[in-house]
Amino acid sequence: MAGSDQHDALQKLIRSVRVSDVEPKPVQWLWQNRIALGKLTLLSGDPGLGKSLVTTAMATAVSLGARWPVGDDTAPKGSVVMLSAEDAVDDTIRPRLDAAGADCTRIHVLLASRDLKDDGEMAERPFSLTDDIDRLEMLASGLHDCKLIVIDPVSAYLGRVDSHKNAEVRAALSPLSEMAEKLGVAVIAVTHLNKGSGSAMYRSIGSIAFTAAARGAWVVTKDRDDPDRRLVLQVKNNLARDREGMAYRVETGENGAPVVMWEPEPVNVDIEEALSTASDEFRSERDDAIDWLKTELKGTEINSKELQKRARDAGHSWATVRRAQKELGIKPKKRGIDNAWVWKLPTREPGTIAAMMLTPEGTQPLKGEHLEHLRGNQALATGKDAQGAQGAQGAEREHLEKPALTDDGDSELI
């Protein structure tokens, strides 16, 4: 086979490029030398420190084309897409944006994916980065001026991906990174820190692949000398020289919602020292475990053995997780052919914001008859045969009381 023919045949099997054929271009920035356009950035931190408030402040700056809090750089004005698995739009996200002074006409919240059923009706399900990345791309590209996408927390949108396995995480994040580059949009993925120690590079919960896939990574932590002061410190930056950190406090806005108040000067604090000495006195281990469980079980159910493994990887003792389970009212059920125990967050009464859908005209609440239909389904579920319910309760009680073997062979009350 001739050389050119062989090259043409190879190009059908792989995609390659001669570097000399590529026109070099500079990195474009959402926030100069801190957050790049067209790239994935990771924002990590313990629960309760204000990570979501930080992304709210960033979304506000982009919606207004305002100056960033540290330095003289200005945010490119444009639209923002937010995915939030933990906060409601009406009582949390909107009030926080209002308190920050955002232009809410430029900010859009992706609430769920919708599929057409065989009977012609539309059914909603949790959005998944592995199954619905094309829908996110259509939403962002349809806005024409989208500059920022916030995913908070990213683990809630990974579907069936095991967030502790490098290969699975990389496979899930790769299409997200490709979409960001294609659209020239900055993507900020929010996640929690694990309870371990060591280098900041390894402190994001789950696989190291989260930090490795991101082109920039930042951590939110407490100031060890001032518990009301928060620090945003750089973990890594693959696209520019390391930059100083930022500091902020959480104040109360005129509408009563919390809002970030940035300090005008950058901070120079060693991130390893800050993380190793950050005080946890204001949160108990059970509180951390409760937040962790909410994130892990958001919109899904997990096998008990798999959950134990994830808890161990995240630095939570199983006894603490069990206390958190009782606090959340989680009742394990048996599922599948192997009759394995699975955990799932208890179902809550659907309210207006929980039953909202994304339409071409914007975010609209489901009509009353749809809510009544949902409530009717709940009533039907709770009105099952009493004898079957008693049997299920007995099985749950047996699971709770039965000692389970941990990986090291020791028994532990379940």
Essential attributes:
about 35% helix; 3-stranded antiparallel beta sheet; disordered C terminus; Rossmann fold; 9-stranded mixed beta sheet; alpha/beta; about 425 residues
Explain what you see:
- Helix content is 35%, strand content 24%.
- With 414 residues, the protein is α/β, with parallel strands linked by helices.
- The chain folds into two domains: 26-277, 3-Layer(aba) Sandwich (Rossmann fold); 285-369 and 385-413, no CATH class.
- Helix 3 (89-100) links the parallel strand 4 (79-84) and strand 5 (107-109).
- Helix 2 packs across helix 3 (89-100), helix 4 (129-142) runs parallel beside helix 5 and helix 8 crosses helix 10.
- The radius of gyration is 23 Å and the shape is globular.
- The protein starts with a helix and ends with a strand.
